[in-house]
Amino acid sequence: MKKTIFFALLCGIGCILPRLSAVEAYTDNQWVVNKIMYAVDNNKPIPEPTAFRLALTDKALIVEIKLEGNHWKDFQKTPFKVRKNVWPMTESVEIFLDPGRSCSKYVQIAAGVNGDIFDNRYTKKPWAAKWTVKRKDFKGGVIFEFVIPFDNEFKKPVAGEVWGFNICRNVKHSSPYFSTFAKVGTYFNTPAKFAELRIGTPKSFLTASQRKNRQMLADVEKEIKQAGLTIHFAKQITKLKKDCDELGIQAVKDELRLLKAMKEIK
Hints:
Blueprint: H1 2-16, E1 24-26, E2 32-33, E3 37-38, E4 41-45, E5 50-56, E6 60-68, H2 72-75, E7 92-98, E8 107-112, E9 117-121, E10 132-138, E11 141-149, E12 162-171, E13 177-180, E14 195-198, H3 202-226, H4 234-243, H5 246-265
Parallel strand pairs: 1-14
Antiparallel strand pairs: 2-5, 3-4, 3-13, 5-6, 6-11, 7-8, 7-12, 8-9, 10-11, 12-13, 12-14
């Protein structure tokens, strides 16, 4: 029985450890240019120029996505007329947002160049947020502007937070294909593989996340002392006080949880 409990605890720790992505974006209103990759090869950029940027207001998250390509005139043939709850079959984009990087609870939004829009949640409960999208035409392509309002379930983040995030472009020309910003492969609905949306500018994000990590480290060090395990964690704590790495702090918290649980079941 004790072995079973031990195994369950060990598996649980493996599941709650956050997965940090090597791909990231910021809510700094700066264009991220030509970083969209083929779905079948996440290391190969697509030939169609694509860019996006994100910004925060007091009331909403703003996402702009610019689509270009030799077939750009096809984007503008049909007037943009919004039809809700219709999966777009034309050239389209998808946005995935996982507030707090839960690796499970996320929102998916899609819009086509003809105005067909669709959204989906991790639960069947209706999403109250009334997000909108507009299409801006220019010579060479179009720009989608999404306005996604904050509400009780989609709360405004603060600097230093990390969300799961992805943007996908579904290219429709003589040789259609799918593409992605995050390294999710061909299966886009994989939140554990989403990119990181870092809230703030690179500078403000770093400052806020370091402050958060220092507080997290202080809290776990206090818990270690209360558990009488100061010597056991001494080297790890000394190292963490130098780099204050979030993943390292989480690893210490998980090990502490495991040791305390083992002590209780002896």
